[in-house]
Amino acid sequence: MKTVLITGGATGIGKATAKLFAENGYLTLINYNKSEKQAKEFCNNLYKSGYLAECYKADITCLKDIESMFDVIYSKYKKIDVLVNNAGVSLIKEICETSEDEWDNIFDVNLKGAFLCSKQALKSMLKNNSGKIINVSSMWGITGSSLEVAYSASKAGLIGFTKALAKEVSPSGIAVNTVAPGFILTEMNNSISEEIKQQIKNETPLQRLGTAEDVAKAIFYLADKAEFITGETLNVSGGLII
């Protein structure tokens, strides 16, 4: 049985992704930090439905937490076949109003977390000469967004991280790719007004807003179906960016 670890897997895109992997026979390991109630309820529901899933609390910006989580996983299951670096935070703020702490937090979660988790997952993948790492970036990592400079920069960094890591580990049979979601209906975007949502919908060629399930399907494709793709960024934006 293949094993997948999904960071930030208790809500939004991470939750939809975990559900899809579980339904397709993966042992699904769900990382969370602050969403303990949601994570445990989600895991219990998956278990009641006959799927194999476990929850692991860890702050992905903390090396000690990450090492402890992977130590437990490796002691029980010996390997990680797929890592989905999904956990992320956003910040809508003018650059001149953005504090150093806010900047550091964005990069710690969105980029450093992917680095720490990938480093640990590669211990198994390099040994087995196989594995998939999928990083969740954003369309703003490609185009940039006004009032989201820190977020855009961190997500652009994740794309660069993907390209470089793919070149480094592909000779060992490991593929590294990125998905770049467009506007997705998740809790992160709940604060956006209905008027702006309608405007974005009108500007999207497919004439609808994206769902967490749309992104999950793209992640699953790169992890389970794509055997000759690495170092790429798959846009999941309904054509909003081409």
Written account of the structure:
The chain is α/β, with parallel strands linked by helices. The chain has a single domain, classed as NAD(P)-binding Rossmann-like Domain (Rossmann fold). It contains eight helices and seven strands, in the order βαβαβαβαβααβααβ. It has a seven-stranded parallel sheet, with helices on both faces. β2, α2 and β3 (53-57) form a beta-alpha-beta unit. α1 (12-23) packs across α8 (212-225), α3 (63-77) packs parallel to α4 (100-128) and α4 packs parallel to α6 (149-169). It is globular and about 50 Å long. The termini are far apart. The model has no long low-confidence stretch (mean pLDDT 96).
Structural class: alpha/beta
What is the number of domains? 1
CATH class: Alpha Beta
Q: How much strand content do the residues show? A: 15-25%
Offer a few descriptive terms.
single chain; alpha/beta; Rossmann fold; 242 residues; 49% helix; 7-stranded parallel sheet; 15% strand
Provide a brief overview of the structure.
It is built from eight helices and seven strands, in the order E-H-E-H-E-H-E-H-E-H-H-E-H-H-E.
Please describe the topology of this protein.
Elements: E1 3-6, H1 12-23, E2 27-32, H2 36-48, E3 53-57, H3 63-77, E4 82-85, H4 100-128, E5 131-136, H5 140-143, H6 149-169, E6 174-181, H7 194-203, H8 212-225, E7 233-236
Parallel strand pairs: 1-2, 1-4, 2-3, 4-5, 5-6, 6-7
Helix pairs in contact: 1-8, 3-4, 4-6
